[in-house]
């Protein structure tokens, strides 16, 4: 059974590191807002009928 406990402990440690990384990213990284302009060709808007 020790190998099962070791495996579960390693999985828990990996999950903890991933969770801690996600928390750190949410806490310390701020998104930058910027304007986005997308040009749409007039052929796509004014389709001939």
- Largest sheet data: none
Classification by helices and strands: mainly alpha
The shape is elongated
Strand content: under 5%
Share of helical residues: 55-70%
Q: Gap between N and C termini, in Å?
A: 74 Å
Round the Cα radius of gyration to an integer and report it.
Answer: 25 Å
Can you describe this structure?
The protein has 49 residues and is an all-alpha fold. Helix content is 63%, strand content 0%. The protein has 2 helices and no strands. It is elongated and about 75 Å long. The model has no long low-confidence stretch (mean pLDDT 89).
Key structural traits:
63% helix, 49 residues, 2 helices, elongated, single chain, mainly alpha
Task: Describe, in short, the structure shown.
It is built from two helices and no strands. Helix content is 63%, strand content 0%.
Give the SSE map.
Elements (H helix, E strand, L loop, with lengths): L1 H27 L13 H4 L4
